[in-house]
Amino acid sequence: MSVPRKRSTLFKTLLLLLFITCLALAGSVPSRADISRHFVVVLDPGHGGEESGAAHSYNGVTYIESVLNYKIAIYTMQALTRDAPNIDVFLTRKENEYLDVDQRVPVAMRYHPDLIVSLHNNSFSDPTLHGACVLLSSGTYREELMKKEQVFARYVLQELTALGIARYNSLTGGLAYRLSEDGTLYPNGRLADYYAVVKHSVLNNVPGVIIEHAFMSNEQDMMTYLRTEEQLRALGEADARAIIRYFKDQEPKPVEKDGWQYENGKYYYYQNGAKVVRTLLNLDGEIYYVNKDGVRMTGWVRNIKGKAYFFDDEGRAVKGWYTDSQGNRYYFNSVQGFLYANRIIKNNGKLYACKPDGRIAVKEFVTIDGKTYYAPSTGVLYLKWHKILGKWYYFNSTTGIMYQNTSMKTADNKQVFYFGANGVCLNRKD
What we know:
This protein is of the alpha+beta class. The protein contains 8 helices and 25 strands. The strands form 10 sheets. It has a 6-stranded mixed β-sheet, with helices on both faces. A 3-stranded antiparallel β-sheet has the order 9-10-11, with no helix packed on it. A hairpin with a 2-residue loop joins strand 18 and strand 19. The longest helix has 25 residues, at 2-26.
């Protein structure tokens, strides 16, 4: 009887497989790709080997940052392996391995990551400082990476806050960045980020952040969140939950376009799925302009509701002083970004004349609204007496307006000076 039973089992198995295959072909059984996209995260346990990071002793026990960082990373890896089979996770270093800060991202890039997370714990000379923060890029280069990092960082801080950890620097919500202090620049000429992991992540076009879970230098943080294996496991699992939430956001969603979109080599701005056209946009304190086709403009745009603007390479309206490649100077409204033209402006207590095309007048007489002024090579308008090409002129001491067809008495009323139609003083010879 054993043989028939085996045949019956085999037959049923074949039928079951055939049934599953038919369902799959009909679309009823989703493949792994249908269930979720695959992602890669690289965890970078800070310090290691000969570089221990911070070290603090409490009750006769010394705690080493590199050890804590590595344990948190392992717990994060375990949680992701258990709870997120669609996320592959790798480490930049082994348990006691030293890795220079400039090597960490290159090592991470071997795994083609979608996210790089460097795990640290804070320390400072002031023992009252406490809480968690996330260090991310400033957005001076590849602004889209900063936006992704902000999303992930907020998830991290939400998860850590749920454990009871305060947010260090509550004014920024626990988010922080730091710019280079030695003048290092990104390829676009703007100041680079200070932290090596963050900077190299930006250069490799991958979101990369540093999580400072708590302050080892603060006894309450140390004892409450970093002392035991259970506490470290809780931190690792909190990081894992944040990573899962972040990658869930990265999966394709049938949502309408919103915000800036890069299409066919140009930027467009969408609101609720609709392309915005022929509009000045005030976004996070920056002014942009999209033309009739919705294209984000750069360079000069001379007539937007009667005003002129100059937009930089990233489409932001220039504010304040600007000098073009020919050496012409201009001044733009410091809030709204429009060009001052055909008027007198006052900046830092000094007067300047903006000609009809917006250029700051230099080495010339200039007439604005029927009043005449003189601007020397500095552009700062003359006030009071000045000798120009061997002739004397007087300019109002407050407004800079040149005296014409008028007379002026000296302060002691002992002498009267006369000025012709062209402003030349007719009776001052010295």
